[in-house]
Amino acid sequence: MLERILLLMPQRGISAAILIKEVGLSNSSVSEWKRGKAKPGADAIVKIANYFGVSTDYILKGDTLETNVNGSVFGVVQGGQGVLLLIMAR
């Protein structure tokens, strides 16, 4: 989970300090996450997902499922053996 958050930050050109300020997290919480002493709570995960415009499933598991304007569902599921692209028409 933390690795996906850390991956999103440079992709969006922000530092941990900016994320903490923008999302309203405490420095100590993020420090504990990085050291493996704690994990983000549900509220923090929702805030981070909303900030980056990704799903909570992506933050938690690396999975993304989206619905386009035609109602088709598509997504990417990352597993231990690689990436599976799903495309399902409606």
Please tag this protein with its features.
90 residues, alpha+beta, 434 Repressor (Amino-terminal Domain), 3-stranded antiparallel sheet, 5 helices, 3 strands, 20% strand
Topology:
Elements: H1 2-12, H2 16-23, H3 27-35, H4 42-52, H5 56-61, E1 64-67, E2 73-79, E3 82-88
Antiparallel strand pairs: 1-2, 2-3
Explain what the structure shows:
The chain has 90 residues and is an alpha+beta fold. The protein has one domain (2-88): lambda repressor-like DNA-binding domains (434 Repressor (Amino-terminal Domain), Orthogonal Bundle), CATH 1.10.260. Helix content is 50%, strand content 20%. It contains five helices and three strands, in the order αααααβββ. It has helices at residues 2-12, 16-23, 27-35, 42-52, 56-61, and strands at 64-67, 73-79, 82-88. Strands 1-2-3 form a three-stranded antiparallel β-sheet. Strand 2 (73-79) and strand 3 (82-88) form a beta hairpin. It starts with a helix and ends with a strand. The model has no long low-confidence stretch (mean pLDDT 77).
Shape: globular
Q: Please name the CATH architecture.
A: Orthogonal Bundle
| Residue runs with pLDDT of under 50 for 5 or more positions | none
Instruction: Quote the average pLDDT.
Output: 77
Largest sheet: 3 strands, antiparallel
In DSSP terms (H or I, runs of 4 or more residues), the helix count works out at: 5
What is the CATH domain class? Mainly Alpha
- Which sequence of SSEs, written as H and E, runs from N to C? HHHHHEEE
Write down the oligomeric state: single chain
Q: How much β-strand is present in the residues?
A: 15-25%
Report the C-alpha radius of gyration, rounded. Answer: 15 Å
Count the beta strands: 3
What portion of residues is helical? 40-55%
Named CATH topology = 434 Repressor (Amino-terminal Domain)
Give the N-terminus to C-terminus distance in angstroms: 31 Å
The largest beta-sheet arranges its strands as 1-2-3
CATH superfamily grouping: lambda repressor-like DNA-binding domains
Number of domains: 1
- Summing up helix and strand content along with how strands pair, one would put the structural category as alpha+beta
